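Encode chain A's predicted structure.
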Amino acid sequence: QVQLVESGGGLVQPGGSLRLSCAASGSIFSINAMGWYRQAPGKQRELVAAITRGGRSNYADSVKGRATISRDNAKNTVYLQMNSLKPEDTAVYYCNADIKRRSWSLGDSYWGQGTQVTVSS
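Encoded structure for chain A:
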């Protein structure tokens, strides 16, 4: 069993900041890429940011310059720091990880349950 648990969401005023965390636990050999996605009401889920095990990252154009993704491989945890938040950042944010459960296995994609981020005054 593998579990991803997100935390850090909530209500933030426009221009504010927040930091999301996602910790993976369970039967894990190693974690390849990790990422954050979001889904606003009536819209498709979209990639916000992703990071490789080695630390290379990429971002959606909509958050470039405002978001920073990082990870702690020892803790199997990925973080998303978002600054200068806008109302259009309002969404449920989901953590995703490509996890190898055995040394010989390919990675499988796992999702967290999501955490609500609301940007409003």
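The two ends are 40 Å apart (CA to CA).
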